[in-house]
Amino acid sequence: MRTTINFGTLTISLLALCHFAHATPAANDAQAVVEKLHATLLNVMRDADSLSYKGRVQTLNGVLAETFDFTTIGRIVTGNSAEQWNALDDAQRSRFLDVFAQLSAATYASNFDGYSGEVFETLGVEEKRGNVLVKTVIVKSDGDQVTLDYVLRETNGVWQIVNVIASGVSDLSLKRADYTAVIKSEGLDSLIGKLTDKVANYASSGR
Amino acid sequence: MRHQRNLLPIVGLLTLLSLITGCASTPNGDPGDPYEATNRKIYNFNDSIDRNVLQPVARGYVTVAPKPVRSGVTNFFDNVGYINVILNDALQGKPGQFFSDTGRFVVNSTIGLGGLFDPAKEMGLMAHDEDLGQTFGVWGAGEGAYLNIPLAGPSSFRDAPGFLSALLLNPLTYLNPIVTLPLSVVNAVNIRANLLEATNIRDQAALDPYTFVREAYRQQREFRIYDGNPPGDGFDDYLEGDGDSAILRIY
Question: Where are the domains of chain A?
Answer without folding.
Answer: 25-205
